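Hi there,

I know you've been waiting on this one. I reran it after we fixed the sequence typo, so this is the corrected version. Both the input and the resulting structure follow.
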Amino acid sequence: MVFARPLAELIAELERLPGVGPKSAQRLAYHLLRVTDEEATRLAGAIRNAKEKLRFCASCQNISEAEICDTCRDGRRDRTTLCVIAEPRDVAAMERINEYRGLYHVLHGLLSPMDGVGPEQLRVKELLNRLGSGEVEEIILATNPTVEGDATALYLARLLKPIVGKVSRLAHGMPVGGELDYADSATLLSALEFRREM
């Protein structure tokens, strides 16, 4: 199918989004063409605003408006426990269960040698810098139960156990191949509660 150049460019950009294939990109593009100019401007403004105002927290690497995010600034959080997760959206998943009271560290990915992702591409150096104070007594590895998540957890456990001592992993109440972002609260709570030391 031949598209007018601006439509083809819009479809191509939408296809670059995660989880959006060619058909979905076309549906989104046609939807965007049908919205009012005001709605299109609002969407473009929201994207531009997010890009301009959001950054990574200097401490935990989560997305934040300020240099240090609200979670890291919260004096009521348990600073002796650190939950290491793959993506910023996983913080929201953990917070939904309203049970975990420690701090987080976001890796921004998982080890994947096939895709050229090694420890250098993740926020591992920043994690090690955080542990220099000696305040952290337990690290919970909350990576997805996938091949990449397991490999990342194993790598981090070997690296961190000599530094922290207690390194645990979420229990496999999480389905193998599942993602934290899609887990229901009961499953996630169970996985957190029955985590095991590595």
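Quick highlight: Residues 5-53 form a domain with the Helicase, Ruva Protein; domain 3 fold (CATH 1.10.8.420).

Best,
R. S.
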